[in-house]
Amino acid sequence: VHLTELRTPAVLVDAGRVAANITRMQALAGSNGRALRPHVKTHKSPVLARWQLEAGAHGICCAKPGEAEVFADAGFDDVRLAYPVRPEHAPRILSLLDRGVRVSLAVDRPDVVAAWSAAMRAARHRLDVLVKVDVGFHRCGVDPHDPELPAWLVALASMPGLRLTGLISHAGHAYRARSADALAAVADEEARLLHDVAAAARNRGVALGEISVGATPTARYSAAMPGITELRPGNYVYFDRTQVALGAATLDDCALTVLATVVTAHEGRIILDAGSKVLSSDRATGYLTTGIDSRGARAERPPDGVLEGYGAIFADAESPLVIDETLCIERLSEEHATVRVVGTTALRPGDRVRILPNHSCVVANLVDSVSLIDGTAVVERLPVAARGRCD
Ligand SMILES: Cc1ncc(COP(=O)(O)O)c(C=O)c1O
């Protein structure tokens, strides 16, 4: 099947680009002596997770038990839940452990840790836990400067039913960085904070063997930082417009695109059949633009760190290498994209376009399957097996 025969909108995944992205991230981790544990929330596909393990990843990372269950069913036996999973889910975690899956999860509260300890002890199991540290994103995690933290780590290390294996963090604020230097500084600060917490624990006799960090924009800096044992990026498998704008990828690294059709055209605008139901309403952040500003000129830097538009359109639908800077997806309805045209365009109703989405993880979550492609040939349909497993 040729690309042009697909019904649109269609989510395409370029197999060669995925393979290259997997190889490159594995090489970055491996050459620096770090373990790689990809977050599979990006592709939600056991097939692609298998590619990652075959390339050398030592396990996978999921968000919630629902994702972990899908991957356990597919035979994955080492799953880290980089999420403060509530103890109400203990029966599900125990069932994974009973099936022989090595499960670990993130914790950041003494009351929750006590409940996990009680649940695991009652079931005569031991659960690996990593303490989540807030390294600046201010979402989950303990405050690394909390004077009570070292004593809590000591207490946690001796709780029945648990095995404290290390520290875990996610520098999500890296997505707000406004320069490469700012990004590097986020990674630097993350490594320093984790090092200091681990050192304070060590001084009290608690050895923390694992220091796990994870985010695609910071991976290139974190890989070489002392003390880090594991990288958990997820988005790198596909990349997207945000990663390009953060300097983490080039356009020809981007593996996930959306194929759309021009449904109608009017003065100064064309309408595509891909709306928020496939592109999502996520904005792209970053400091390098791949789009145009509101005056139609190429903006060197998005002024507030948010790029214009709900994706970027490639100049050639069959060869996604260069963005057509005269087209801006300025508005989405559920089933329509309104594209502002600066000057004129050769695009006519019925023509196909390839869109680079702002955020590939959410796009993958919006479709039951993606089309795996090799150039312009559709190779197979790949189910997004863990799609929607947000429980
Ligand atoms: C806890 C955690 N770890 C790792 C990742 C992977 O980061 P990225 O999407 O930047 O690759 C995420 C992403 O949201 C996350 O929330």
- Distinct small molecules: pyridoxal-5'-phosphate
β-strand percent reads 15-25%
Low-confidence stretches: none
Tell me the structural class: alpha/beta
Give keywords.
17 strands, single chain, 8-stranded parallel sheet, 9-stranded mixed sheet, alpha/beta, 391 residues, binds pyridoxal-5'-phosphate
Descriptive overview:
This protein is an alpha/beta fold and 391 residues long. Helix content is 28%, strand content 22%. Strands 1, 10, 11, 12, 13, 14, 15, 16 and 17 form a nine-stranded mixed β-sheet that branches. It is globular and about 70 Å long. The mean pLDDT is 96. Bound molecules: pyridoxal-5'-phosphate. Pyridoxal-5'-phosphate binds at residues 39, 82, 170, 214-216, 232-235.
Compose a concise summary of this entry.
It contains eleven helices and 17 strands. The protein has 391 residues and is of the alpha/beta class. Strands 1, 10, 11, 12, 13, 14, 15, 16 and 17 form a nine-stranded mixed beta sheet that branches.
